[in-house]
Write a structure and sequence with these properties.
The chain has about 150 residues and is α+β, with helices and mostly antiparallel strands. The protein has a single domain, classed as Electron Transport, Fmn-binding Protein, Chain A (Pnp Oxidase, Chain A), CATH 2.30.110.10. About 30% of the residues lie in helices and about 25% in strands. It has four helices and seven strands. The chain is globular and about 35 Å long.
């Protein structure tokens, strides 16, 4: 997958600034969600309409080399824009530390989704509130293990 195309930074200033600081420091700075101390990862996708490279900081939910990618958008009624990028093209770059690596994500359902959702809530408790705020089932994607 070619992630070297034109970059389209987030229109949300804090997202764009966090991605820039994280990548600029090889993951040493801006590695937590604002002032919470809770670790994040960066995913890179290709815009399904624009073709632009898109980068998003997300909560770090990892188990045995796989990562949950939670499309919560804070419990908003609609999916985050990057959700549609993953549906159109599940190939991403995932960065958890100094070097990003290519991986593929898949949307999980049923018991597998519930298992990952429970882990996600234990790592980032606000997900419980997000679930209550929306009528949609918040999608959960899982990355391929790097191993």
């Amino acid at each position: 997958m070619d992630f070297d195309g034109e970059y389209g930074a987030s229109t949300w200033d804090w997202v764009a600034e966090q991605v820039e600081a994280y990548e600029g420091s090889n993951g040493a700075k801006a590695a937590t969600l604002r002032d919470t101390g809770m670790p994040i990862i960066i995913i890179t996708t290709i815009g399904h309409k624009s073709g632009l490279v898109r980068k998003v900081p997300l909560m770090r939910v990892e188990r045995d080399g796989e990562y949950a990618i939670i499309a919560s958008k804070g419990g908003a009624p609609e999916q985050p824009g990057w959700y549609h990028n993953l549906i159109a093209n599940p190939n991403i770059l995932l960065q958890d530390g100094p070097e990003p690596y290519e991986t593929v994500v898949r949307l999980v359902t049923g018991a597998e989704r519930e298992d990952w959702w429970e882990l996600s809530e234990s790592i980032f408790p606000p997900y419980k509130d997000y679930k209550q705020k929306t009528d949609r089932e918040i999608p959960v994607f899982i990355s391929e293990s790097r191993n």
